Amino acid sequence: xxxxxxxxxxxxxxxxxxxxxxxxxxxxxxxxxxxxxxxxxxxxxxxxxxxxxxxxxxxxxxxxxxxxxxxxxxxxxxxxxxxxxxxxxxxxxxxxxxxxxxxxxxxxxxxxxxxxxxxxxxxxxx
Amino acid sequence: xxxxxxxxxxxxxxxxxxxxxxxxxxxxxxxxxxxxxxxxxxxxxxxxxxxxxxxxxxxxxxxxxxxxxxxxxxxxxxxxxxxxxxxxxxxxxxxxxxxxxxxxxxxxxxxxxxxxxxxxxxxxxxxxxxxxxxxxxxxxxxxxxxxxxxxxxxxxxxxxxxxxxxxxxxxxxxxxxxxxxxxxxxxxxxxxxxxxxxxxxxxxxxxxxxxxxxxxxxxxxxxxxxxxxxxxxxxxxxxxxxxxxxxxxxxxxxxxxxxxxxxxxxxxxxxxxxxxxxxxxxxxxxxxxxxxxxxxxxxxxxxxxxxxxxxxxxxxxxxxxxxxxxxxxxxxxxxxxxxxxxxxxxxxxxxxxxxxxxxxxxxx
Lengths: 126, 364
Hints:
The structure holds two protein chains of two kinds.
Chain A: E1 7-8, E2 13-16, E3 23-27, H1 29-35, E4 38-42, E5 49-50, E6 55-61, E7 65-69, E8 74-79, H2 89-92, E9 101-105, H3 117-125
Antiparallel strand pairs in A: 1-2, 2-3, 3-9, 4-6, 5-8, 6-7, 8-9
Chain B: E1 6-7, H1 11-16, E2 20-24, E3 27-32, H2 38-47, E4 49-53, E5 60-63, H3 67-72, E6 86-93, E7 100-110, E8 113-117, H4 123-133, E9 139-142, E10 147-153, H5 157-163, E11 175-178, E12 181-184, E13 193-199, H6 203-214, E14 219-222, H7 224-234, H8 268-277, E15 281-288, E16 299-302, E17 305-316, E18 321-329, E19 339-344, E20 347-354
Parallel strand pairs in B: 1-3, 4-14
Antiparallel strand pairs in B: 2-3, 4-10, 5-8, 5-9, 6-7, 7-8, 10-13, 11-12, 12-13, 15-18, 15-20, 16-17, 16-19, 17-18, 19-20
Subunit structure (chain A): The glycine cleavage system is composed of four proteins: P, T, L and H.
InterPro entries (chain A): 2-oxoA_DH_lipoyl-BS, Biotin_lipoyl, GCV_H, GCV_H/Fam206, GCV_H_sub, Single_hybrid_motif
Protein name (chain A): Glycine cleavage system H protein
């Protein structure tokens, strides 16, 4: 449930790096499981500037609400608008169809500061 | 201070089903189950059948000559409205203020025997108050951990309970005994359903029988998460949120559960006066016009004026919209249908005042 090819934040976002392009961001399996059935998602518009560690949106379940934090500083270039009508795909496919936004990092090296799968596994299993 | 959470006799069954547990009223109870989740468990109850372990609910027995008259002189509702074999929703109010100490189901066995189901967190206090007031002939016993309670709820609940050889034909709010089980036509979901009061030592056997018979009926184990969405859709009050010692039955619009013509019940003077004067606030339903879910303690606004506070709020899986209950100031003069706003973490979410229930009850 923690893919090896992704990077992670301590706030339970995952980040998929591509060669030099924007990064794709979602919440982890662990996060969706803790939240329970997700019913609303609020995401930034394309073009919005985001800052690493600052809230960029919210995911809300029947039970509780959780903020989504920017994993890197940069500009939102795409968001997953399908989630407005089918937020449950975050529960069923958090690393695939349940992605949230794509961000063009202002510093491509910023990903190096994120957790790797082993470090995230340690965080969630401790 | 740390308090050891109490556990249901079915705890191991829940763990085996992959339950996530949460503390509730001093008990560690299932919130939802692996492979289920609030939405699936909610749907099972609306469309088929679900079983909730609600063994955390209190149990207290009042017995002795004049037991029913004694209970009737304390709790708000009028036991004279029902006969033996029937249950009644009633309130234990503070005698001085009329604030609600707890809401309780009273099962009338006879003139000398009433069984009470208070909320988990309030059982000791309800028992304490009753004991302090009881005449020498009447005994009040806290039987909290002597029984498990299994709520079997949903349109296929009669089939399931009947398949165990238990009686199912009694009317809503009626109860029947079958050996050492009591089968009550009660619940907290708005569906046709039963609450089985089972001696703690038999809880696992009855749970296993239900699951052995329930699979073809679409049975799911359901947790407190779905219990909350189901009861909120009905507008049923939850003590600790929509009811408290700060909130009276008049404010919560539970006047139907008060025997106004009785000569005595706790809180009578305060409540009669408040009813005559008109309450300063009342519990109202809110249905969202925007996205976002109103949660307890969020402020309700009419324009720039704060007019109330949300007491319960969740997403209605049936209506696919957020619903809430809120105490709204009478002075604001807001009619049902009026639009208000709730401050949802700094954003204003538009909601419409509506009269609960949000979803049509199917209890009968």
